[in-house]
């Protein structure tokens, strides 16, 4: 529920980035339901969200991080101002951060303080901040050479996690389960990340997320979830997840970190382990709309609309308790999980077909799903290669 400071003012125009991402579709649909005029930035007409009835107009732009992206984002936002800007992916958030001083006042956006965003995007600085708050973090070290990676394997144990040290840009995770696997895993992580590689202790257990909307350092909305299945199966993004209506341990840990960073905007703090006291280990901060965001919408927590309401000067009513929901993304990794890990295929198919499990498909807005299917087919050979490298 949202109350307006000016009840006569209609919902305003919104520019959403990254039409290619699976969760962008849910964001534009939510905004359109609230009455907003939705504009979308995408690389091409192949992006699924481009074809949603929720989108008034889409604007072509290079990939975030590519030459010309910042200029195109600024040009588009200026052309349709007044507008609220919602950067979805980490590359778009980084571009918005670089453009803070260039955006006109008629372009409204919510970004955390510059140093807070820098801490969130640097996994080592994130871990240091968590340690100061008494939160558990995996043992880790930055490795620049194969010899350093081998030393980390001896120090941190197997399986050794090798991942990009920064949150923005291309994210990659590789696992060295035996000493013979260190060299290929390190080289793959270094090549994909294009920079420093973080060697990290493996944490057993489930993946959990504390998702939040902050406004000038104050928590406005929160939501928690548990990953049921991931893609790739060894560890990655959510392919199936369920809401966690109550978990004081998870809520305290996530809020403590974002409180300390004086957060502004949306974020998801990722943990792994169990929900026993002291058993959750911080993995990273997603300083953006997270990939499993559809689950929050299905549970009744409307982060994009509530964020835009605050940007437009409206006041949020008290949050209603989130519903208990299970969400599956068959074309967002769950079918791959089942195909490449056959023991899970019966559960994957049950969730894909069950009316009691939420999905993104809408008969009222079917066109985007044809493009999702085409995207899935094009990506399957790469998924097969990814699975072979990460298992």
Mean pLDDT: 93
CATH topology of the largest domain: D-amino Acid Aminotransferase, Chain A, domain 1
- Main sheet makeup: 6 strands, antiparallel
Helix content: 25-40%
Poorly predicted regions are 1-7
Order of helices and strands: EEHEEHEHEHHEHEEHEEEEHEEHHEEHHH
Class from secondary-structure proportions:
alpha+beta
- Report how far apart the termini are: 44 Å
Walk me through this protein's architecture.
The protein has three domains: 2-111, NAD(P)-binding Rossmann-like Domain (Rossmann fold); 139-201, ATP-grasp fold, A domain (Dna Ligase, domain 1, 2-Layer Sandwich), CATH 3.30.1490; 206-383, D-amino Acid Aminotransferase, Chain A, domain 1 (2-Layer Sandwich). α1 links the parallel β2 (13-16) and β3 (37-42). Mean pLDDT is 93; it is low at 1-7. The chain has helices at residues 22-33, 69-80, 90-98, 114-121, 123-132, 146-156, 182-193, 248-260, 293-298, 303-311, 334-340, 345-353, 367-390; strands spanning 2-3, 13-16, 37-42, 55-60, 83-86, 107-108, 140-143, 160-164, 173-176, 197-201, 206-215, 218-231, 237-243, 265-273, 280-286, 315-316, 326-328. It has 391 residues and is an alpha+beta fold. The protein is globular.
